[in-house]
Amino acid sequence: MSEKKTVSIVGGSGYAGGEFLRLALGHPLLEVKQVTSRRMVGDPVSLVHPNLRGRTNLKFVDPAGLEPCDILVLSMPHGVAAREFEKYAGLAPIILDLSADFRLKDLGLYKKYYGEDHPRPDLLNRWVYGNPELYREALKTANHIACCGCNATATLLGLYPLVKEGLLVDGPIFATVMISTSAAGAEPSLASHHPERAGSIRAYKPTGHRHTAEIRENLPGHPQVHLTAVATDRVRGILMTAQTFLRADLTEKDVWSAYRKVYGAEPFIRMVKLKKGIHRYPDPGVVEGTNYCDVGFELEEDTGRLVVISAIDNLVKGTAGHAIQSLNVRMGWPETTGLEFAGLHP
Amino acid sequence: MSEKKTVSIVGGSGYAGGEFLRLALGHPLLEVKQVTSRRMVGDPVSLVHPNLRGRTNLKFVDPAGLEPCDILVLSMPHGVAAREFEKYAGLAPIILDLSADFRLKDLGLYKKYYGEDHPRPDLLNRWVYGNPELYREALKTANHIACCGCNATATLLGLYPLVKEGLLVDGPIFATVMISTSAAGAEPSLASHHPERAGSIRAYKPTGHRHTAEIRENLPGHPQVHLTAVATDRVRGILMTAQTFLRADLTEKDVWSAYRKVYGAEPFIRMVKLKKGIHRYPDPGVVEGTNYCDVGFELEEDTGRLVVISAIDNLVKGTAGHAIQSLNVRMGWPETTGLEFAGLHP
Amino acid sequence: MSEKKTVSIVGGSGYAGGEFLRLALGHPLLEVKQVTSRRMVGDPVSLVHPNLRGRTNLKFVDPAGLEPCDILVLSMPHGVAAREFEKYAGLAPIILDLSADFRLKDLGLYKKYYGEDHPRPDLLNRWVYGNPELYREALKTANHIACCGCNATATLLGLYPLVKEGLLVDGPIFATVMISTSAAGAEPSLASHHPERAGSIRAYKPTGHRHTAEIRENLPGHPQVHLTAVATDRVRGILMTAQTFLRADLTEKDVWSAYRKVYGAEPFIRMVKLKKGIHRYPDPGVVEGTNYCDVGFELEEDTGRLVVISAIDNLVKGTAGHAIQSLNVRMGWPETTGLEFAGLHP
Amino acid sequence: MSEKKTVSIVGGSGYAGGEFLRLALGHPLLEVKQVTSRRMVGDPVSLVHPNLRGRTNLKFVDPAGLEPCDILVLSMPHGVAAREFEKYAGLAPIILDLSADFRLKDLGLYKKYYGEDHPRPDLLNRWVYGNPELYREALKTANHIACCGCNATATLLGLYPLVKEGLLVDGPIFATVMISTSAAGAEPSLASHHPERAGSIRAYKPTGHRHTAEIRENLPGHPQVHLTAVATDRVRGILMTAQTFLRADLTEKDVWSAYRKVYGAEPFIRMVKLKKGIHRYPDPGVVEGTNYCDVGFELEEDTGRLVVISAIDNLVKGTAGHAIQSLNVRMGWPETTGLEFAGLHP
């Protein structure tokens, strides 16, 4: 049995940090050392993460009091990790960043989608994109892991085998992500005020979603993927549907083959395409709390239109679970360690 | 046909003021003159009340720019109407206040439940409690109407006939109100942050709810009603259940008789107690958007326990609709004018 | 003032028939004469439509007992209206059918999407598609009105001006409809069993949705519109997003011009595209209970991708409200009669 | 390390059986041998329990094909386990029944609440009520465990220490349980049809709830507990509030002492009564998926009214988790084995 490694979390009062904390507390090879929050110094972490009552006596500490540890997880607002990187770089040999700061290599894409020049282009090359399905080999030796965006994960994992194996007609791919309210974070706002948001189906980002950049950069050949984001009133979860066309010489069997070839050994990807029952396609309700990405598709025979469907929990496979999985790869631990929860039904 | 009366709303960007505005715009005998909001001066009212798009071109004005009108509606945070009464008193011959400031006559109850002495006890006697079912006669000549609280309305209308007709055993009455998220108002807060509130069933005020005071003051004989408030994730609506004991010499028929005697001619109270179907008791989903208070009950034969059930929409019958109904009574208009919406199903 | 016309509803225990009944009861120029239900003969209509308690004393009658009336509304399962048309044809000079039986003229499209030959092609020519925005002139003299499908309405009203005015690049249009649970009707099923459906985002019809046929037939030039239907857990409402490309020589102003030109005088279409606030685009929550179709769009400048967004209440503008509007056109009544409800917020 | 024990589930297609299956699959000392379903013989269990995709290849078998095993779990409709007990009695030395058939000792209470004489009173004495907090000692040697009802569990665990320690004034205790839709089972019905149930707050059993019998029988001294059940639209979870009076000579400290004394060493009971934050009292959202029962209270100083609040997941602590916990006690395994999930937030 490996020895436990210590992990500390910078920015642990939000949803991403809290989810990493939950998973780390249940991980047999991790020991949570410190969790920071500027606003809540001295409060038990369970005050804002009530599911952790009775699970830990940890209290929030000030970031200034961070001590060296084996693994440091950064969960801060956009831009902070890049601007303050020197503060944290020396604290741990392995650093995971949950923000978007170090995900992109293409500075032009960064500027286009984030509206400014990247503050620290010199740092980008040392980071590996935290997506084990695409970058498992690189992750095995990565000391800096830029964990991927939730909508990007759902879209990439749905499309990757089809693009990689060259199954799609050239041309635009239209992806629609139906997302949930936890994605906007733990800070109250009018957009997330319950009476305004409950029951809402809100086209909150029809164009220009930042995760588009991650998707394009990480798909082979950089196809023109368009992203439309619609906010639902689920608390957790993403359903992604992508519309494109299959090459005219191919059939449904070829689609199956591509997925099997690329994902055959993946521990967290399940192909879901049933002929009966009510759960025939991926559904975020089914994967809530789990690290699964369920993937399915439907082919319209007469037109060749291919609809790809994927579902994840944005806070697990979309954020903290994917981070744990990347970390397991990095540490040489079994990849599913600490990610065993099967999800609930109903 | 009567001539239209002008009405202005002080504090029209919140949910109570917005709901009064919606009803007033659809009322054939009211003409909305001005709507105030300090923060949104110059913005169209439809910016925060998107249901009113295409229904009105009104823009928010500063309270300082209020002009005289026939009817003034005050919809301000607790305490403001009492403290600033002189600002508004001269603007209109008829004033309705949607806050709790002028509801109580008993200064002791006010202090107990609001934690301070009433700022303007001298004003209290001129106000009539805006509950037509209990105070219709007084409302006919009332120039100052203190509109009643939403939980108080649900509880009072459920219990009033039983108390008035002396059907209950002396002793405590335990009322539980299951309320909705709009009751906390339009201002974002952590408690109403969607990810925290969605799916929540939260015992937010097990004891000490302020509406207890209104309920006790307005029930004949002032029985000891205890109120426990539980927050659900409905956006609108209240379900009230009250538990008490029927006098041992009485039967279900006597309960029916009391309700019929007191409510037989009420336009907005429906007795709901069916023997079949799935809608056998009052349900806030059924009365959403309407001015109805549905009332039902169940009697446990062997113990005499009586469970009273009522349901309202907190923003309509619980606030703005009740206010319009009171105003209709005051003006001598048909009591249902502007309150005809039947509600939706499903 | 016109004289009231009598209307009877065949199949009034379901959601579509019930919604027509609700609107007809509130319509000043309609008098509901009979409502049929085979299973519920003798039961009050309010048993299954609890919002109508206190609004009507109507009881369900057997279809065999139908008497002549001015207007007959058919609300029956797919295929019944066509197969049993002779039963009803003589009962009223004006007939509205809420089913899909008489919507299509193209027998090939019917066979493709409904899987069988049309049972009564001889009847098709007498029916006018019940969409006032597209067929107002024809509806003025129509005695047989085939009311349009809910998803078709949302999609058609979003795309029609752009297609009619020739603003779009040739090529496929990808429409995604996010629909609600009432669309599946009043009959319990596993797919609509609350524990299975609540919180679900279900890709229930990625390809092959029947409303595709209506959409293609009624758009000028019959563009290749692809429809993907995703089921949410809203009870009412549709959000439609369509992705396509604007012609390279055009700008956002041209899009605005097309919508204004075609919809400038429409009483139930609101353009929604704001620069601030949280309600910047159409949202089904805002139009619930109303006959509005809110339409908005967003243009991605660098690629010309145009995302069109529309929102309706599937039971009102998508079914019964659209039917009432068509009937108002037919009768020469003001088009908004009986459809004045503004909707609720929050 | 103990050797694994085999467990089979009779009636595994429903929610209770499915939840036991999920927990058993994740239990390191259990090996699931067979799962029966009459209707689904040969179908993979993941067809109806989609969360188990990739977790098990088990297929449903016919009950007639059941083989001997170490532990048999009966999850059948009311009355079947009692009537068919001989079929199953010989298959395993340890039997757990998830139904209500063997919970009560008092035949009078059974008849009163279930409306008929108990079919097999001769069997009752061999069963131990599966509530480890109340009957841990007896469970250590129990070969027949009658798992307790979900509403009974929430109510019993909230009230037990107060009654046991004699803190309450004699007199009625009014308990209100706010329950969820999974409690009605996996079979579609009109009451659980999504459009009818969503958003509903339904007083579905104001009096006469069957779990009242279990509560009274298992509280020391059999106080007069009244139960009112209200159905919410949560899928899982129960919030219980009970209203009663604390003895006049006691204070809040005594309430704390009683809970600490009785529950101090309980692994699955958490006292929740905070002075700040939004999670001050138990909330079913926080315990979803877990075996926790969170318990809190509030005391109204001037009247002595005590409001007790508890929250559980009806399918875990209310059914299958409580069963696993009882089984762990019986087998001498650590009591939390297989029940480690912390729950999600948000």
From TrEMBL, chains A, B, C, D:
Positions of the catalytic residues: 150
Pfam assignment, any one: Semialdhyde_dhC_1
Subcellular locations according to the entry: Cytoplasm
GO CC annotation terms, alphabetical: cytoplasm
Residues that hold NADP(+) according to the record: 13-16, 37-39, 314
GO molecular function: N-acetyl-gamma-aminoadipyl-phosphate reductase activity; N-acetyl-gamma-glutamyl-phosphate reductase activity; NAD binding; NADP+ binding
Semialdehyde dehydrogenase NAD-binding domain residues: 6-142
GO biological process, one term: lysine biosynthetic process via aminoadipic acid
CDD domains: AGPR_1_C_LysY, AGPR_1_N_LysY
Keyword terms of this UniProt record: Amino-acid biosynthesis, Cytoplasm, Lysine biosynthesis, NADP, Oxidoreductase
PANTHER family: [LYSW]-L-2-AMINOADIPATE_[LYSW]-L-GLUTAMATE PHOSPHATE REDUCTASE-RELATED, N-ACETYL-GAMMA-GLUTAMYL-PHOSPHATE REDUCTASE, CHLOROPLASTIC-RELATED-RELATED
Cited function: Catalyzes the NADPH-dependent reduction of [LysW]-aminoadipate 6-phosphate to yield [LysW]-aminoadipate 6-semialdehyde.
This protein's pathway: Amino-acid biosynthesis; L-lysine biosynthesis via AAA pathway; L-lysine from L-alpha-aminoadipate (Thermus route): step 3/5
E.C. number(s) listed in UniProt: 1.2.1.103
Keyword field contains rRNA processing: no
Stated name of the protein: [LysW]-L-2-aminoadipate 6-phosphate reductase
InterPro entries for this protein: AGPR, AGPR_dimerisation_dom, AGPR_type-1, LysY, NAD(P)-bd_dom_sf, Semialdehyde_DH_NAD-bd
Family: Belongs to the NAGSA dehydrogenase family. Type 1 subfamily. LysY sub-subfamily.
